[in-house]
């Protein structure tokens, strides 16, 4: 988990750093586009100005041509012979003025037209360059900027989560292996085998000790029960008494044994009840309230558990109080 946290922290640092760098590059691109558009606006205004001047010069030239044409028309209508001699110089001066004005306006128009043509060419070239720059920005640069912002992000994030998934899958595998080990151990639980194993391991504690040997006193060599008179009658009487008592104890012990067997079976049933299935508590299709309600009515509810514990302790108390109460007495009587 620490590995995943470190990787996520590194990814965060990389994203912030790359974003700042990409933002700087993006601002530079915006400044370049602004510069290009400002240049285009300046060139456009220059073109509009020269074009307006060219139109004005053309208009003035046409006006001069009209005046010239009007003057020629007048000259054609009036015969020179009809004009008085003193009006001829004045007429020539007027024609020269018109021709001179036309030449000046023609020169001005040509000059303005040339300027307009250059300005238009400059505007068209800048317009194409500006459109190309804007097109390049939106088609290529924006995509490249986004790529720079998340450079390696998806790959790093994928590696991080694959690390997490690998850890979880291995943890799940280890958990399943551990569950298999526990299940195998549960299947192999055997109280009788465990008891024998413990007794074998501690044989010095559980092995019966040596029998007590007869210890003769001051040279007494008799080591068996003597049944001769006068103790024979006493021994026979004692024998019959022991037999009678032994028969009575056997009957009582048999009844107690039956009761204890039934009690043991009850304890076994209590201890081996199959109450380990808790799948109902993990039913996601049902609401939380219904799950809680179902759990309260099942065998594992707190009330039922308390009742079972009380019954179990009561049964255990009865069993251990009455177990083997007369068995040792019967065994001794048999030996006697």
UniProtKB/TrEMBL annotation:
Name this protein carries in UniProt: SLIT-ROBO Rho GTPase activating protein 3
Residue spans of biased composition, Basic and acidic residues class: 83-105
Gene: SRGAP3
Coiled coil: 239-266
Domain F-BAR: 1-194
Superkingdom of this protein's organism: Eukaryota
Region (Disordered), start-end ranges: 81-105
Keywords (A to Z) from UniProt: Coiled coil
Gene3D superfamilies in alphabetical order: Arfaptin homology (AH) domain/BAR domain
